[in-house]
Amino acid sequence: MQGASSENRSPAGVLSAGVAVQDFVYSVDQIPTRPEKYRARDFATVGGGCAATAAVAVAALGGRSLLATRLGRDAVGDQIAAELEGYGVDCSLARQYAGCRSSISSVFVDRDGERLIMNFRDPELPDRFDWLPDLKEIGVGAVLADTRWAEGAKAAMTAARAAGLPGIIDAETPVREAEDAVRLASHIAFSRSGLIDWTGDDDLVAGIRSVVEETGAFVSVTDGAAGTWYADADQEGHVPACKVDVVDTLGAGDVWHGAFALALAEDRNITDAIRFASAAAAIKCTRFGGRAGIPDRAAVEALMKEQDR
Amino acid sequence: MQGASSENRSPAGVLSAGVAVQDFVYSVDQIPTRPEKYRARDFATVGGGCAATAAVAVAALGGRSLLATRLGRDAVGDQIAAELEGYGVDCSLARQYAGCRSSISSVFVDRDGERLIMNFRDPELPDRFDWLPDLKEIGVGAVLADTRWAEGAKAAMTAARAAGLPGIIDAETPVREAEDAVRLASHIAFSRSGLIDWTGDDDLVAGIRSVVEETGAFVSVTDGAAGTWYADADQEGHVPACKVDVVDTLGAGDVWHGAFALALAEDRNITDAIRFASAAAAIKCTRFGGRAGIPDRAAVEALMKEQDR
């Protein structure tokens, strides 16, 4: 009856801390290069932001997902929270500040998938993150943070460390802006550009070794189709990427981080967690759209099995 | 007691028909020229659209202002209507369509005021304008339409003609898209580019003469600091622009059209109406921001007096 008892167990939970953005995405024939007036072919309003999209991935994969983020008390902030809640993300730790503007991006995408992104973050949004309840109380098994909200990431990694839980930092450029959080994390998951930004060297394997030496943490770097390298004080290895037909990589890194955090919250071993994350991100890449392309657990497990053959 | 009786008279009304847009305006150091990620210095969400901004000008100048427009039944549409109502524009003739998206633009503005505008209009928005009540019932004294909603402009100009009221078309490019409405208007108020687009000739005075001959209407063309040329079957003339320090021309043309329509609704003679419109637009140009820079009547009358000296 192991299967049945496993199904009745309440799902593992992940707290994600970081940015939530509203993206205004215009489909264009060509990326504009001159200050003129252009007409877009199509348009969509979609949610974005590393931590927020990772939180959607956690929920889509069947985990309990909480998001701590800072929004403006404005129409965009209401829209961001409503979309996240629609995906099953618990936004009770998202704070809306009166007099502040929510983060927003306008994205122009051409037919080849090239993107021009214009982002605004309100410098008036208070940095502090002092409303985090006891992690045992909210019952999460792992904490994930992005580098876009340095104080939030630091508070989240501190709480994870105090609770003895995995604290994963999504180490995307500019990583140094969240240096305190990186040094507090138990798991530092770099993108290729994030690792090069941190080490100043494009040898990725040497890079993760040096960060292990520097921090004592588990360190990984994901390099698209080349897969993921990882190392800690005791081991190192490589997990290949799943072979898929890539349609749209938007949000794939965020999906990887959400799935990885959920796998750690579920006490999976590290290579299994990386395989789970890689499969989730790979499926996302086969589907058009950001959050709309995030797979459920059945699809991820099916791809993992296929890769095993 | 003429002053008192004039003050007690109910204000003249203008119906504006055309587009209402939400503009997402990013202040940037430089207009982007490559598909990369950029961070904006500042950001504002502001209402735009020719007819909508003209309707705000009518209200700001003390007129009764009604706007007929098509919106999506979405968060942006709610925001557009709420902002307009905040300016005192009656939106009971604005229609929100379920399943449609409201018009939206992202605007990048650099330190020199250069602009890159990316606009999206939902092609699914129904063209028809069949909810216009009897103009006598709604008690307006003039009707204004832009060229961005051809069917709306045509219905508005037809109704104005039937009621014997001035029907003003804001003849901005692409003018030919609203050709039926232009031919029905009693007053065709071109921008420089609108007139050149219509006649194919950059001689503005010859251009308005040819449009008078073609349509029998009153025809004007406004050319920024060079002022306004006008002509009809009986007269022609020129009204110089007010000399002001230009800070921001955003929306100045729309203010000109709203003020001109209100002056005609108030039965002012044509040169007085042009002077009133030119003064309102000139003050707008001295102030940063679109609608936020629209003057009230006292400021316009003060500038008109100053110009008389």
Summarize the structure in short.
The structure is a homodimer of 309-residue chains. The first copy, chain A, has helices spanning 2-8, 50-60, 75-86, 135-138, 150-163, 179-184, 192-199, 204-215, 252-265, 270-285, 297-308, and strands at residues 13-17, 21-27, 37-39, 42-48, 64-72, 94-97, 104-109, 115-120, 142-146, 167-171, 187-191, 218-222, 228-231, 236-239.
What report would you give on this structure?
Two copies of one chain form a homodimer. Helices cover 38% and strands 24% of the residues of chain A. Mean pLDDT of chain A is 93; it is low at 1-7. A nine-stranded mixed β-sheet of chain A has the order 6-5-1-9-10-11-12-13-14, with helices on both faces. A four-stranded mixed β-sheet of chain A has the order 4-2-7-8. Chain A has one domain (13-308): 3-Layer(aba) Sandwich (UDP-N-acetylmuramoyl-L-alanine:D-glutamate ligase). With 309 residues, chain A is of the alpha/beta class. Chain A binds chain B through residues 24, 26, 28, 31-40, 42-43, 45, 74-76, 78-79, 101, 104, 106, 108, 110, 114-122, and chain B through 24, 26, 28, 31-40, 42-43, 45, 75-76, 78-79, 101, 104, 106, 108, 110, 114-122.
